[in-house]
Specification:
Layout lengths: L18 E3 L2 E6 L2 E6 L10 E9 L1 E6 L2 E6 L3 E5 L5 E4 L4 E8 H4 L14 H15 L6 H20 L16 H12 L8 H8 L3 H10 L4 H17 L9 H7 L5 H12 L3 H7 L16
Antiparallel strand pairs: 1-2, 2-3, 3-9, 4-7, 4-9, 5-6, 5-8
Length: 296
């Protein structure tokens, strides 16, 4: 495995607000470790991705079997596990933002393997530079807003033309943040304490931004959570393998905490009581209708 630019060993939570060293200054940008450096180039971590923004001179990015020169103002998104390298050219300086790999795994390369240049790179650079300079004074909410903006911009810059597998939880055209949130919810439907604050905290965003994501998709967060829970219950009721389980056991397995509330919600959603639904061995509908909030 070849080495690459800029060693960022510490986890975000362990990084100080500012640290000067031979490797440059290190601060948190949107909660992500960020280095501004023109110093020694060291290894990338395999569990991280790196947003590299060239700010002076040039950098040489070895990727896809060839070299690309990153001029001042260019941006590259690099997979820490890929073996790609970035060598510092004459006067080369950059910002290097370390991001958990799973947050941007869909967007490591554009179809032609090229970096982002022009207005999009300038917008990314301006955001990172400004957040870096004001890292000492940004509060929690502004920092979360910076994080959301960074991930949204990265998705917009590196997704163009990229073919991704169809997301079983929703439209493949959905923003990457929305797909990540839905995947998290789907994995935690069995938690009766699942709530907007819990979801937002797990995704590193504000509760307000979480609700805005769903509102933009035309459905509330509470409606979507309940839809998924009822769909899982309906699937179990239609499956003879679960005949030995009570209605309450099935409901509680998927995050409901009150059997009467579950029965009312199920009837409102599917037009029939859970017991009758099971007796009829109905196939769960793909898109049950919404009837009021379930997560507030």
């Amino acid at each position: 495995m070849q080495s690459a630019a800029i060693r960022l060993e510490a986890r975000a939570a362990a990084w100080p607000r500012q640290r000067a060293s031979a490797e440059g200054d290190h601060r948190l940008v949107g909660g992500f470790p960020c280095a501004r450096t023109g110093g020694p180039l060291q290894a990338f971590k395999h569990d991280s991705a790196y947003l590299v923004l060239a700010v002076s001179g040039h950098l040489v990015w070895e990727h896809l079997g060839h070299e690309t020169v990153l001029q001042a103002g260019d941006a590259a998104l690099i997979d820490g596990a890929s073996g790609e390298t970035v060598e510092r050219g004459a006067g080369g300086g950059c910002f290097c933002l370390q991001i958990p790999r799973e947050l941007v795994a869909d967007h490591f390369r554009r179809p032609d393997g090229s970096p982002v240049r022009g207005a999009s790179a300038a917008l990314l650079g301006a955001l990172v530079r400004s957040a870096f300079e004001h890292a000492d004074t940004l509060g929690r909410e502004p920092s979360l807003a910076v994080r959301d903006a960074l991930l949204t911009l990265i998705a917009a810059c590196w997704s163009a033309g990229l073919v991704r597998p169809i997301d079983p939880l929703g439209d493949d055209a959905e923003p990457v943040l929305m797909r990540q949130v839905k995947a998290y919810i789907q994995d935690h439907l069995d938690n009766p304490a699942l709530s907007p604050p819990l979801i937002a905290r797990a995704q590193g965003m504000s509760v307000r931004h979480l609700h805005r994501l769903f509102k933009a998709g035309g459905v509330s967060l509470g409606d979507w959570v309940r839809q998924r829970r009822l769909a899982q219950c309906a699937a179990d009721l239609a499956d003879s393998a679960h005949d030995g389980e009570s209605l309450t056991a099935i409901a509680f397995r998927w995050g409901f905490s009150d059997s009467a509330h579950f029965s009312r919600s199920f009837r409102a959603q599917y037009g029939v009581a859970p017991r009758a639904y099971r007796a009829g061995r109905k196939t769960p509908p793909a898109t049950p209708r919404f009837e009021g909030p379930a997560c507030s």
